Amino acid sequence: MKLDETASSDPWHFARPSLAAAYLDAFDLKLSSARGLFARRRMGKTEFLQQDLLPAATERGYLIAYTNLWESRAAPDSAVVSALSEALAPHGMQAVLSALGRPVRKVKAGAKILGSVEGTFEAELGTEQSSLALREVLKQIDRQKKPLLLVIDEAQVLAHARNGDFAHALRAGLDIRKDRIKVIFAGSSETTLRTMFARASEPFYNWAALEPFPLLGVEFVDYTVRLMNSMARNRLKLEQGIHAFSELHSTPEFFKRFVERYMLYQVQGVDAALSHTKATVFSDDHFHKQWSARNPADQAVLILIARSDYGVHSGSGLSRLSEMLGRPASKSTVSHALRRLEKDNAVTRLGLGDYRIEDEAFADWIRRKAAAER
Ligand SMILES: Nc1ncnc2c1ncn2[C@@H]1O[C@H](COP(=O)(O)OP(=O)(O)OP(=O)(O)O)[C@@H](O)[C@H]1O
Ligand SMILES: [Mg+2]
After folding, report:
1. pLDDT 10s digits, 295-345
2. CA distances, 123 to each of 68, 78, 118, 127 (Å)
3. How confident is the model at residue 20 (pLDDT cuts 50, 70, 90)?
4. Same domain, 240 and 318
5. Which PANTHER family match (predicted)?
6. Same-domain pairing of 159 and 202
7. What's the number of domains the chain is made of?
8. For residue 43, which atom of ligand 1 is closest to its CA?
9. Distance, CA 193 to ligand 2 centroid (Å)?
């Protein structure tokens, strides 16, 4: 990916320079060399990392490497290695490949690099070799004058047991380079990220401070509404924008769809645009699929969490579950369901017995469905 091309081309991007500066300042002050950020889906993590943080880091003289592990979840190791190699491109990467005995002719210039190297690694490197490739690319980075910022988006993929060897190798490699390589881990699953950084048996234990990613709010709405008003005939009031944003669960992606709808169908007015957007983004179809893929115990537990009438582990919670399932539900019914739901990122554990459905819109849908069926 060519980050510098995307940085300035999107007029709708609400820039967050001070947030980017704050992260980089903390690295400069050597307070930490790694941070973990989490926020729910579609809240703007990736956009911030790519369009604000990485360009700001480049300006401060960092080499930058970015990878989104969800897109490469089959081979996160080669994704990390190729992101690091790309930061060195083209010379550093050629050196890495030749050290590994790879034919250098496979490396093509420009944007093709990522794809081709990733393909090469994926096809030809086993786990051992990817750790070797990692060591090699880190050695190349040691030879650079500039420090490096590595951003690992959807980092929770590294928490999978099958990626354990590589994760250990990565941690070891980065640990001894704390002053030259700074790392940001981001992800949408708080639960999994917590496991990664808080469990003593995990490779990244105690390595990065994990904190919520600051969400977009009124300033973002204000920016977007002003920009839209500069183009639209029927202007939108800031309060109308704020109302729509909140109705859309403060989700920037949905708000932008609302703005687009409003611009295209201005004569229909703001209410029509909002209800159209809600109908599409909180679409029944999509939730229906998620719902029917779940077994009855999972569904019943989801209802309990969505309605939050009773604690999932409480006595009244269990009897409510038994009622819904038409058979006696036990504590292990609940814990098995919770384990599955957490594994799929459907549900997050906030505290003892305190759970939340990751997708607030899905929770809403469940509440409506449960109310209609009573
Ligand atoms: N700073 C911003 N300015 C304008 N729009 C934004 C901004 N951040 C996010 N958005 C809008 O929200 C959408 C979702 O953002 P993004 O993909 O960054 O979320 P995310 O938190 O990475 O989600 P996921 O967990 O699903 O990967 C973007 O495609 C964009 O439309
Ligand atoms: Mg993202």
Report:
1. 999 999 999 999 887 788 888 899 999 999 999 999 999 999 999 998 888
2. 19, 10, 8, 11
3. very high
4. no
5. ATPASE DOMAIN-CONTAINING PROTEIN (PTHR34301:SF8), DNA-BINDING PROTEIN-RELATED (PTHR34301)
6. yes
7. 3
8. 21
9. 14
